[in-house]
Design goal:
The protein is mainly alpha-helical. The chain contains 25 helices and four strands. Keywords: 4Fe-4S, DNA replication, DNA-binding, Iron, Iron-sulfur, Metal-binding, Primosome.
C-alpha cells in the first residue's frame, strides 16, 4: 500500500478478511485502465485499492474525504441544503465526475475516492462511536452520488454488483396483483391498479427490508418481500450499509496487524482525532490531576454542558446520585482532570449524609474501579454524546442522560430560561429537539451562551468543556478554589 521495498498492500488484507476470514496480502501493481479498475463513478468499496500509494497520499486523501464527511454532518444537523453544500465541498476536496464528462482525470479522481475511503475505514473502526459516525456519513455520501447518476448508469452499476435481486415477470406479478395493490402507494391521481401495472417489482429476502415491512409498504409471502422499483434506493442503501458494517468489524479485528507498519499508526490516530478533535479514550497525562475537588463547582458551573451541570446540581441538592448518574458524571470529571485521589475527596464530601464506613463499603470501590485501579484495571473513557443519548434512559429518580433527549419540552424550556437564554433562542433550540437534532441543539446552546463563539457540532461533553475553557480569561488556582466555595455556599 505504502511505497516501500516490500510493496505490500495492507488494504487487501482487510478486504479479504471481511469476506473470507483469512489474512491475504496482495501485491497488485497499479493499473491505469479505467474500464478495468473503475468502470463506474459509484463504488461499493468491495475490493482494496489496486496500487501502492505514498505516505503523503495516504494522509492527504483521507483528510480531504474527512472534510466532505464533516460537511455532510454539519449540513444535516444545521438544516442546510445538502445538495448545495455537498456539491461545493466535493468539487473542492473530492471531485468525482461521470463517464459522460470525458475528463482525463477520471482515473485519478476515482483512485483518490477509493483510497480515501479505505484509509478512513481503518481510522474509524476502533470503537462503536467512530463506526456509527463513519457509516452514517458514508451512507449519505453514497446516496447523494447514487441519486446523481442516470438511470442507465444505475442499472449498469447494480448489474455489475450482482446483488441477486429477482425481478418479477409479468405472470408472477399478475399472480399476486391483488396483494400488491393493497400495499401500493401510487402517486396522487393514479389508481393502485395502474400503479402495479406500470411498476417493476423486486423479490428479495424479507430480512432485508424490515422498515418497509414495518410501515406495510411491501407485500410479504413465504419469506420474500416484493419491493417496487420506486423503493430501489432503500434496497441499495441497505446493501451498502450492511456491507460497510461487516467490513468495519473485520478491519477492527485486523488493525493490530495493519499497524505493524510504524508509519501508519500516527497517521491513523491523527485522522481519527479530526472526528471531535480528540477521542477522550484514555487518560490525558497533560491534563491528569489538573483539577482539585475544591475546584469542581466553579469549573462545572462555568464550562460544563447542560447534561453535566444537571447532574452536578442534582448531586449538590440531593447529596446523592444513582449509579448511572455517578458513572456518567464521574467519567466526565475524570476527563477534565480530576484524579482518582481527588475524586474520592469530591464524592465523599458530596455524599455528606452518609457515614465514612458506608461510603467506603458502597461507593469508594466503584470510584477507584472507574480509574482502572480495581478489578480488571479497565481505563474507562468519558461517555460520548452518542452513548449518552442512545444509552439507558433515565427513569423516576434518575438524573443521567441528555437533557435535550430526555427532558420533557416544558422541563427543558424551564431549564433554558434558568440560563437566561432569550425566548427566540429557546424556541430555536426546542425546534431542533423536536426534529431529534439533540447534538446540534446542544451546540446552539453553547453558541448562545458563549457570545460570538461558533464551534463544530458537539459530539462529546468533554469537547464542550474544552471549547468553553478556551474562551475564558485564565484564573489563578486560588481564585478558582475561592469561587468554588462561593458557588457551593
Amino acid at each position: 500500500m505504502l511505497k516501500s521495498k516490500n510493496r505490500v498492500n495492507r488494504f487487501a488484507a482487510a478486504s479479504q478478511t471481511a469476506s473470507t476470514g483469512r489474512l491475504v496480502f496482495s501485491e497488485n501493481g497499479r493499473n491505469h485502465r479505467l474500464d478495468l479498475d473503475y468502470p463506474f463513478r459509484l463504488n461499493f468499496y468491495l475490493k482494496p485499492p489496486p496500487a501502492e500509494i505514498t505516505i503523503e497520499e495516504f494522509e492527504g486523501f483521507a483528510l480531504d474525504r474527512l472534510q466532505v464527511l464533516r460537511a455532510i454532518e454539519a449540513a444535516a444537523l444545521r438544516n442546510k441544503d445538502l445538495k448545495t453544500e455537498l456539491a461545493q465541498v466535493l468539487d473542492q476536496h473530492l471531485p468525482l465526475r461521470s463517464n459522460l464528462s470525458k475528463s482525463t482525470d477520471l482515473y485519478e479522481e476515482r483512485r483518490k475516492d477509493h483510497i480515501s475511503h479505505f484509509v478512513l475505514r481503518m481510522a474509524y473502526c476502533r470503537s462503536d462511536d467512530l463506526r456509527l459516525w463513519f457509516i452514517k456519513q458514508e451512507c449519505t455520501l453514497f446516496q447523494y452520488r447514487f441519486e446523481q447518476e442516470t438511470m442507465e448508469e444505475k442499472k449498469n452499476f447494480l448489474n455489475y454488483l450482482n446483488l441477486n435481486w429477482k425481478i418479477l415477470s409479468s405472470e408472477e406479478k399478475e399472480a399476486i396483483r391483488e396483494q400488491l395493490e393493497i400495499c401500493s402507494r401510487p402517486k396522487q391521481g393514479m389508481s393502485s391498479s395502474d400503479y402495479v401495472s406500470s411498476e417493476t417489482f423486486f423479490e428479495v429476502d424479507f430480512e432485508k427490508v424490515p422498515a418497509m415491512i414495518g410501515n406495510r409498504s411491501v407485500y410479504v409471502r413465504r419469506g420474500k418481500a416484493y419491493v417496487p422499483m420506486t423503493e430501489q434506493i432503500n434496497l441499495v442503501m441497505l446493501e451498502f450499509k450492511n456491507y460497510l458494517e461487516r467490513a468495519l468489524e473485520a478491519t477492527a479485528k485486523l488493525l493490530p496487524r495493519l499497524e505493524e507498519d510504524d508509519r501508519l499508526k500516527p497517521i491513523l490516530l491523527n485522522v481519527e482525532r479530526q472526528y471531535v478533535g480528540k477521542s477522550y479514550g484514555g487518560i490525558d497525562q497533560s491534563n491528569a490531576g489538573s483539577l482539585s475537588a475544591s475546584q469542581v463547582d466553579a469549573a462545572v458551573h462555568h464550562h460544563a454542558p447542560l447534561c453535566m451541570r444537571n447532574l452536578h446540581e442534582s448531586l449538590r441538592a440531593e447529596k446523592h446520585l444513582r449509579h448511572d448518574g455517578r458513572f456518567q458524571y464521574g467519567l466526565f470529571l475524570k476527563g477534565i482532570g480530576l484524579s482518582a485521589e481527588e475524586a474520592l475527596v469530591f464524592w465523599r464530601t458530596a455524599f455528606s449524609n452518609i457515614t465514612d464506613d458506608k461510603f467506603n463499603k458502597e461507593y469508594a470501590y466503584n470510584i477507584r474501579h472507574s480509574y482502572g485501579l480495581e478489578g480488571k484495571h479497565t481505563n474507562y473513557a468519558p461517555l460520548s454524546c452518542i452513548k449518552i443519548i442512545s444509552g439507558n434512559p433515565p427513569s423516576t429518580g434518575d438524573n443521567h442522560g441528555c437533557p435535550f433527549r430526555h427532558f420533557s419540552a416544558s422541563n427543558l424550556e424551564n431549564r433554558l430560561q434558568k440560563d437566561k437564554i432569550s425566548s427566540n433562542y429557546i424556541n430555536e433550540i426546542l425546534e431542533l429537539v423536536r426534529n431529534r437534532h439533540y447534538q446540534v441543539a446542544c451546540t446552539r446552546h453553547f453558541e448562545v451562551t458563549h457570545t460570538g463563539k461558533q464551534v463544530d457540532i458537539i459530539e462529546h461533553p468533554n469537547q464542550y468543556y474544552e471549547a468553553s475553557k478556551s474562551t475564558e480569561v485564565p484564573m489563578t488556582t486560588d481564585a478558582l478554589a475561592e469561587e468554588s466555595m462561593e458557588i457551593d455556599d
